[in-house]
Amino acid sequence: MHVASPLWNGLTEPARSVALEVLYHGPLSRAELARRLSLSAGSLTRLSKPLLDIGVLSEVGIQPENRIGRPAVLLDVVPTSRFFLGIKLTGDEAHAVLTTLRAEVIASERAPLDRREPAEVVATMSGLIGKLGDRVDGISALGVSLGGSSTDNLTVARAPYLDWTDVPLATMLTEATGLPVVVENDVIAVTEAEHWFGAGRQYERFAVITVGMGVGYGLVVHDKLVASPDAGIGLIGHFPLDSAGPLCPMGHHGCSYSMLSIPGIRSSISVALGRDVTYDECLDLAATGHPAARRIVDDGGRALGRLIALVANLTMPNKVILAGDGVRLAHVGYDAMIERLHEDRDPRASRVNLDIQAFDFFEWARGAAVIAIQNYVLGNLHP
Ligand SMILES: [Zn+2]
Predict the structure, then answer these.
(1) Which helix (H) or strand (E) holds 63?
(2) How far is the CA of 214 from the centre of ligand 1 (A)?
(3) Is residue 284 within 8 Å of 267, Cβ to Cβ?
(4) C-alpha 248 to ligand 1 mean position (Å)
(5) Rounded average pLDDT per 10-residue block, the chain, 383 residues
(6) C-alpha distances in Å from residue 306, one per residue of 297, 343, 352
(7) Separation of 18 CA from ligand 1 center, angstroms?
(8) CA 251 to ligand 1 centroid distance, Å
(9) Cα 241 to middle of ligand 1, angstroms
(10) How far is the CA of 317 from the centre of ligand 1 (A)?
């Protein structure tokens, strides 16, 4: 795989902050950029000139009117100046995307994981990397996200869906492809994608709740992801939500896993019906009024409303984003969810600004690409 030249690597910190501001908020006029960074017009010109010379920034057009009535030249990054790959691993599939510097998806591919041994998974990922990488002239970095934890962005400390412990995934992938590689927990990756390039972009404080094979949570405060070595453990995976709820495999009554997760909902409805049902079938049955399925999905909706209220009450976010492959629970159980959300909030509290995202595994792969983009533009990658 051809590694693109490290365009952003040699930037001084002041020049990098100019480039980052344009990446987040561009296109911007020089005057607006100087105002945002509290720089004089002269300092900004001195810092932006070399960025224009080496192609990190470009002049993209004219803003017709500004406050003093003169047209202003707009500066922007060149999104297609650098390309990135993102791969999201589940227990049985790899989903990969090729993106620009602004995380716009250009192409996507997926492949089944027939075997979970790390070497086999790396071989499958290398195939996807080759297919997508061939479409452009050089890749700057690869991000990989998965359900699990990595404390150093290189080694997978634990990934239960793949039965992995202490797998040096980044090193293995770099050896196979030559690319700089970063590894991250999938909920953190999705939260960072919302933070830099998604629904959380205009908010300095927001939360993400994910519902799928498990239940996850990400938080951005003061425009920064709240990071901790504990973040990848899944701290709200078994959070108590309904003491009268069904048992989870760990013996909790009505924890977030048993009430909200795909396996939890499937298990409750399969027991009620006396046969195995898929997740979609569970929600279809509830939507068409099957009494047992309706009751279980409404219980799930109420538990989700309680969790959203907890997050809102404790962290006071400007927005709560619901995401994940089990997010259809929020649609089919919507009325119950909203009812409980209101019950658990002070009537004087502001309405929770809720955003239910359409689910797509490639959106999660895009999150992995965003981790690669962040590490690249922040100068954390040293090929
Ligand atoms: Zn539990």
Answers:
(1) strand 57-63
(2) 10
(3) no
(4) 5
(5) 82 92 91 93 92 91 68 89 96 97 97 96 97 95 95 93 96 96 96 93 94 95 90 89 96 97 97 97 97 98 98 96 96 98 96 94 96 94 68
(6) 14, 9, 12
(7) 46
(8) 6
(9) 10
(10) 26
CA of 258 to the centre of ligand 1 (A): 6
pLDDT for 291 equals 97
Query: What is the residue whose two structure tokens read 């898929």?
Result: 278
Task: Give me the amino acid identity at 94.
Answer: A
Cα 180 to ligand 1 centre (Å): 37
Could you give all domains of the chain from N- to C-terminal order, each with its CATH number?
13-77 (1.10.10.10), 81-191+362-377 (3.30.420.40), 200-356 (3.30.420.40)
Query: What confidence score (pLDDT) does residue 69 get?
Result: 63
The kind and range of the H/E element at 301 are helix 291-315
CA atoms within 13 A on the CB side of 340: 20
How many other C-beta atoms lie within 10 A of the C-beta of residue 130? Answer: 13
CA of 379 to the centre of ligand 1 (A): 40
295 CA distance to ligand 1 centroid (A)? 20
